[in-house]
């Protein structure tokens, strides 16, 4: 059995190859379909011991389409190109974050 190469892993889905734009769009659609509230967060570091990321604007309470969410990701990326950016999904019934995944890494690109 072969082990994975030693490298930093980030958030949910981090052990998979980088998500394509279509896969990211489907993940955002899943968040919306489940009734979760999407939000965008960014941070200069993705150190696992850093528990607080800065939220980009307010959560997208009224978002109805993936394009609304991805447009905000692009705006955040334009303003903070050297930061990690992730999308999170909040459950307003359980009052907690249900999922999150990285959509932009400094030096790499997505959306």
What does this structure look like?
Helix 1 (21-33) packs across helix 2. The protein contains 2 helices and 4 strands, in the order αββαββ. It has a domain at 21-45 and 55-104: Ribulose bisphosphate carboxylase, small subunit (Ribulose 1,5 Bisphosphate Carboxylase/Oxygenase), CATH 3.30.190.10. By secondary structure, the chain is of the alpha+beta class. 24% of the residues lie in helices and 24% in strands. The longest helix has 14 residues, at 66-79. Strands 2-1-3-4 form a 4-stranded antiparallel β-sheet.
Structural class: alpha+beta
Please give the alpha-carbon distance between the first and last residues: 35 Å
SSE pattern, N- to C-terminal: HEEHEE
CATH superfamily of the domain at 21-45 and 55-104, called what?
Ribulose bisphosphate carboxylase, small subunit
List keywords for this structure.
111 residues; alpha+beta; Ribulose 1,5 Bisphosphate Carboxylase/Oxygenase; 2 helices; 4 strands
How is the secondary structure organized here?
Blueprint (H helix, E strand, L loop, with lengths): L20 H13 L3 E7 L10 E3 L9 H14 L4 E8 L4 E9 L7
Antiparallel strand pairs: 1-2, 1-3, 3-4
Helix pairs in contact: 1-2
Question: What's the gist of this structure?
Answer:
The chain has 111 residues and is an alpha+beta fold. The chain has helices at 21-33, 66-79; strands spanning 37-43, 54-56, 84-91, 96-104.
